[in-house]
Amino acid sequence: MCDYCHNIQKWKSFNAPRDYLACIEYIRHLVANGGFELLEEESTCPLNQVKTEDGWADEIMVHMIRCKHCGQVFTCVVNTYRGSGSFKKGKG
């Protein structure tokens, strides 16, 4: 990690759907500010499509971003069926 991504906020777990949605908004902000890129090939759906008219886009969703300064990868994964997930450094 570099000075740019060292203080990125991480979630050890999502205790409620609102935690996951807050994390998605945080990731969208990181990408929009230009310091991080969404790894679309490693992500299961676009950040703005995690919810549909029928509920969640999928049972398990993964979103990976990479720091444009040092290449460090961060992964957000959620299991909407069982109600678990996290956002942490590294893949998977």
Note down, in words, how this protein is organized:
The chain is built from one helix and six strands. It has a four-stranded antiparallel β-sheet with strand order 1-4-5-6, covered by helices on one side. The protein has a two-stranded antiparallel ribbon with strand order 2-3. The relative contact order is 0.26.
**Main beta sheet strand tally, sense and closure:** 4 strands, antiparallel
Which descriptor suits the 3D outline? globular
Number of helices: 1
Structural domain tally: 1
Q: Give the fraction of residues assigned to helices.
A: 10-25%
Rg of Cα set? 13 Å
- Going across the major beta sheet, what is the strand order? 1-4-5-6
- The stretches of 5 or more residues where confidence is low (pLDDT under 50) are none
Annotation, overall tally of beta strands: 6
Overall mean pLDDT: 94
Per DSSP, what share of the residues sits in E-state strands of 2 or more residues?
Answer: 25-35%
Which structural class do the helices and strands define?
alpha+beta
The helix/strand series, from N terminus to C terminus, equals HEEEEEE
